[in-house]
């Protein structure tokens, strides 16, 4: 199985996940042109994308769906509530391209489990993706856009081989920054976004001996920096037993406008 974020942050979010030459997107918050360009950097053709799975209906996650789904003629997977919210902004999508998901389904030959996160959209979800069946069945957990760490997140993210998780902001930067009060309250609230330290506490729960890769995603441009997110998380992990138990664990930050290298888990 392989994956990479294509764009990440409030300017747009999309991730490619797949195995061999079968792929799907999680979220589509980028233009068709940016999608094609960023996939090309990973040697993936847009024609190898078999579907788009939606976490929630905020614009930074859905703004490219209409043009991309029409051009590639691929299905879009979302819960009934998210469909209801986002349909008016997508333009024309053929009925047969609309797939309603609930708890678990298959896309591009991979099994995807759906679990709720805590965010101020109508509904919002994370996903646990299982690599192709076999001796090396690997798992990828993805959860961004959540104000708190939920029991469901602990249940589904614990023990994943790789994680794409949100390190949105540094709390001090947020509170000392120039955002208006209501926005500070929204971001730091239970249905907002995770702070670097909150995420690190979650990682202490989720990382197990098999966990190889962590991607910090959805960083705020105003209230965080890649260096600050990484150093805050690393400091907390280094004070735990994880550094000793899991010396090969690698962390990186998802770039805002470009993909990170394609990460391969087990056999691709
Ligand atoms: Zn978002
Ligand atoms: Zn959101």
Describe this structure in words.
The protein has 268 residues and is α/β, with parallel strands linked by helices. The protein has one domain: Ribonuclease Z/Hydroxyacylglutathione hydrolase-like (Metallo-beta-lactamase, Chain A, 4-Layer Sandwich). Helices cover 30% and strands 25% of the residues. It has helices at 32-40, 59-62, 65-72, 80-90, 151-157, 171-176, 181-188, 196-206, 226-238, 242-245; strands at residues 2-7, 14-19, 22-26, 49-53, 76-78, 98-100, 104-107, 110-116, 125-130, 139-143, 162-166, 213-217, 250-253, 263-264. Strands 6-5-4-3-2-1-14 form a seven-stranded mixed beta sheet. A hairpin with a 6-residue loop joins strand 1 and strand 2 (14-19). Helix 8 (196-206) crosses helix 9 (226-238). The radius of gyration is 17 Å and the shape is globular. The structure holds zinc ion (2 copies). One zinc ion binds next to helix 2.
């Amino acid at each position: 199985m392989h994956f990479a974020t294509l764009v990440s942050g409030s300017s747009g979010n999309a991730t490619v996940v797949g195995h061999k030459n079968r792929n799907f997107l999680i979220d589509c918050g980028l233009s068709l042109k940016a999608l094609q360009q960023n996939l090309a950097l990973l040697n993936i053709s847009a024609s190898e994308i078999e579907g788009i799975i939606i976490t929630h209906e905020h614009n930074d996650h859905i703004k490219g769906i209409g043009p991309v789904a029409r051009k590639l003629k691929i299905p879009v997977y979302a819960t009934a509530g998210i469909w209801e919210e986002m349909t008016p902004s997508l333009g024309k999508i053929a009925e047969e391209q609309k797939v309603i998901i609930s708890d678990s389904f298959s896309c591009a030959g991979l099994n995807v489990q759906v679990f709720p996160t805590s965010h101020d959209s109508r509904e919002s979800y994370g996903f646990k993706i299982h690599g192709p069946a076999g001796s090396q069945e690997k798992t990828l957990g993805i959860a961004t856009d959540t104000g708190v760490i939920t029991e469901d997140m602990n249940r589904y993210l614990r023990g994943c081989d790789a994680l794409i998780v949100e390190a949105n902001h540094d709390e001090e930067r947020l509170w000392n920054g120039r955002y208006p009060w209501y926005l500070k309250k929204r971001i730091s609230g239970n249905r907002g976004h995770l702070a670097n330290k909150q995420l690190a506490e979650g990682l202490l729960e989720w990382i197990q001996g098999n966990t190889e890769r962590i991607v910090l995603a959805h960083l705020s441009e105003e209230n965080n920096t890649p260096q600050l997110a990484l150093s805050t998380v690393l400091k907390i992990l280094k004070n735990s037993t994880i550094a000793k138990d899991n010396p090969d664990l690698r962390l990186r930050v998802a770039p805002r406008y470009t993909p990170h290298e394609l990460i391969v888990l087990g056999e691709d």
